Amino acid sequence: MKKATKPAKNEILVNLLTSIFLLNPELAAVQLDSNLKIIKLKYFVENFKGIDLKLQKAEYLWKSYLEFKKTEKYILKIEHSFLDNYVMIEVSRDLNTFQIGELSFAVELGKGLGLHYLSDEYNEVLDFIEVDEQQVNILLENTKRSFSAKVFAFREEGRVVIAN
């Protein structure tokens, strides 16, 4: 009988990133940097009107959320840049205090502020797949402790592309 082997670090990271994208169709890209201990979340939105004020409100509410959760010594920075017909929003969070639940919070917060997310047209195909958020939390905790690289993941035509 073979011994059960532990999954490789890369496998854990790939599973984490794939699960994050399955849980969050609004998310366009994720960047993990173990040296800086930062996770960057990237979203694309359609509307430009009042984007500065909306993102200021979002940052204030997100900080309130973190304080409500009793998160200490956190990093949160929300920036944006204008591209052709949309706005790219980049949220930087420290990897040590980041929690998976913040992804859903971010999307709902944006929707509440009137942001219209661009999402991958292939997401409807994946609606039947169920992802256990508790398992994703375990993957995140394992990744926080074990990975040592800079990784970038994004959606492309229904696939998750991961590069380092």
From TrEMBL:
This is Uncharacterized protein. It comes from Carboxydothermus pertinax. It comes from the Bacteria.
